[in-house]
Amino acid sequence: MEITVRLLGALDVTSGGRHLKIPTGKLSIALTSLALYHGRTLPVLDLAEYLWGTELPTAPRATIRSYIKRLRQILDPAQGSGRDGTSLIEGGRGGYALSGTRVAVDATEFRARLGHASELRAAGDTHGESRTLDSALELWRGPLLANVDAPELMMGAVPLLEEERRRALHRRVALSLDGLCGGDPGAYVPRLRQALACDPLQEHFWEQLILALQRCGRSAEALREYERCRRLLSEELGIAPAAGLRQLHQTLLADGADQHAAERGDGDVSPWPTGTGERAALLRSLLAGRRKHVSPHELPAGFQRMLTGHPRATAAGPGPLAPAAPPSKGRREARYTSRRVRTRRYRTSRSADRGPGRA
């Protein structure tokens, strides 16, 4: 009867559908370490580092032997081993290894499926690759080793698995978004959001999430996600989104403006929205990340065309610079800024009239 050790989520050990209880603490860390090195010998010194870090006990080798003995007492009877001198945990003084033939580990299976997906990709079989990537990603049940408190292990072998998962998810979503394997791009929105919840600074996942939402016709959500990404990168790293993300943002804005014009039936009219609420929303998006007060020459290209749709615009020129908005604190601030600009211009003009020598 085969023992199955599952690491891609909470640590779980089963034998013939029956759960085996592994005590929390050092025994769980020891079994997890052996499972991550499934089929290979884990040196005693490396196992000691995963168990204790730099604060080793007085007799680490003896303590490790006691842990291995207790794990064998749990695993071997469930599999029917141990009576003939064989054990599921092989090795001795130099290191220990979890049997690669009599124990199944989901992390090992995950990597095997990724290898098969790479072979299919090299052969040009994108449909087979996508199916294999799906089957690999389905092995994950949640955050890696969610119920194991092992700081040293989390900084060592665990990040490699997490990176492999990120690459697999990125490749699978890319296949869907590129239309190479069919499927609904929206099906991967929950997975992308889950990945970003665990690692919110992964810009390529933000880009794929926004693109997937756009492909599903959820442009408003896509714009909100871009703003979340922009704000996060600015606050956490002090940087702007990458060029690809910024270009995608501009595409979303342009698509929204074109759709608005098409719905109005204005074939030759500027695509910039003319409704007051729409102008205010577009202005906030266009000026995202800029200073609170900007000069006219700093406005995005084409913005003057939007201003010409202001209700107070005349043949002599566009309406006021402040964006129209419903009565609110933002509108009051815009009016106050407008008055400050006019007052400053008036004072500058008066000073010029008086000349440099007049008080």
Short description:
This protein is an alpha+beta fold. The protein has helices at 26-36, 44-52, 60-79, 106-122, 126-137, 151-155, 158-177, 189-198, 203-215, 219-237, 243-264, 276-286, 303-307, 329-354, and strands spanning 3-6, 12-15, 18-19, 42-43, 89-91, 95-98, 103-105.
Would you write up a description of this structure?
This protein is α+β, with helices and mostly antiparallel strands. Helix 9 runs antiparallel to helix 10 and helix 10 runs antiparallel to helix 11. It has 14 helices and seven strands. The chain is elongated, with a radius of gyration of 31 Å. It has a domain of 104 residues: Arc Repressor Mutant, subunit A. A four-stranded mixed β-sheet has the order 3-2-1-7. A three-stranded antiparallel β-sheet has the order 4-6-5.
Write the layout of secondary structure elements.
Layout: E1 3-6, E2 12-15, E3 18-19, H1 26-36, E4 42-43, H2 44-52, H3 60-79, E5 89-91, E6 95-98, E7 103-105, H4 106-122, H5 126-137, H6 151-155, H7 158-177, H8 189-198, H9 203-215, H10 219-237, H11 243-264, H12 276-286, H13 303-307, H14 329-354
Parallel strand pairs: 1-7
Antiparallel strand pairs: 1-2, 2-3, 4-6, 5-6
Main pleated sheet = 4 strands, mixed
Using the 3D structure, state the CATH architecture of one domain. Answer: Orthogonal Bundle
CATH topology of one domain: Arc Repressor Mutant, subunit A
CATH homologous superfamily assignment of one domain: Winged helix-like DNA-binding domain superfamily/Winged helix DNA-binding domain
Q: Which structural class is indicated by helix and strand composition?
A: alpha+beta
Mean pLDDT: 79
Q: Percent helix among the residues?
A: 55-70%
Q: Helical stretch count?
A: 14
Q: Could you tell me how far the N terminus lies from the C terminus, measured between alpha carbons in angstroms?
A: 100 Å
Q: Quick one: how many beta strands?
A: 7
User: What series of H and E elements makes up the topology?
Assistant: EEEHEHHEEEHHHHHHHHHHH
Largest sheet, spatial ordering of strands: 3-2-1-7
Radius of gyration: 31 Å
Name of the top-level CATH class of one domain: Mainly Alpha
User: Based on CA inertia axes, which overall geometry fits?
Assistant: elongated
Strand content: 5-15%
Low-pLDDT ranges: 266-275, 309-327
